[in-house]
Amino acid sequence: MNMGSENDFDGSEDASESESQGSGTYSEISGSELDEEISWVEWFCNLKGNEYFVEVDEDYVQDDFNLTGLANIIPFFDHALNMILDIEDNDSDVAEPVPDEQYPLVESAAQMLYGMIHARYVLTTRGLQAMLEKYQACLYGQCPNVLCENQPMMPIGLSDNLRHSAAKVYCPRCQEVYQPRSSRLNTLDGAYFGTTLAPLFFMTYADTVPTTVRSYYVPRIYGFKVSSTVKDRLRLQKQKKLAGHAADAASRGGVSVSQVGTGGGPALAPGSGAAGAAMTGGPPGAERGGGRESTEKLGEDEDDGEKKDGEGEGDD
Known about the structure:
By secondary structure, this protein is mainly alpha-helical.
């Protein structure tokens, strides 16, 4: 069986380059052993850039229950499964072998299928144990947060669906998700690890979770702490002030307050005009008419006052 691949899988090198240069940091296969016949799973996991995967047991792959739903999302599913299990198409129930021009597509589908099977396998007891070994070796990097003190991280996906986002890394100390420093890990699909792996891993191996209190960075200005409560208090005061203005505007109904003007002229009463007519239930014209009558009456009272003042001066 030809193990070479014409297409890179998620940033990994092709088979010929991996065989000539070795399988990377986490490879356990020597150059002499590469000449011997190995399984597809072993070959794939030792490619440069694929050391982040664990080797899935063949029995797990052969169980149809573990493959439920994958046939609907993986192209060339039957051919890809045969490739993973090192089964020739002629020896299986597949209708006909794949043409040579489509063979690279089948290889890509097999790599994608293995990634989805891997996401399910790492949730089993044996899969979690295999991930524990890689976690203890800090294979997935250390937390970039200075306060986490080089805490090892676990891979995690932001979605269980393919092509949603690349793989991320999760820190159990600060409980944050980061971009991985490894460009090879960053090119793997996040669905190959899934959203459940990291939480389940640290729940299963509780002794790997740091017991120290989570530390936070505290900003300081000239040695004095910048309290977040100050910012919150100022923000609340501003919100209350804006709410007070809105309440005043609502109570006025959008009309000026009834106050005597500094120029001595008569001021409009609250609710005057069309808005006042709507509030009192009367027609706008009646409201305006009432305003004119009040003005005229006020003018008559002023004239009467002037006449009285004139009569008093005449008597003097």
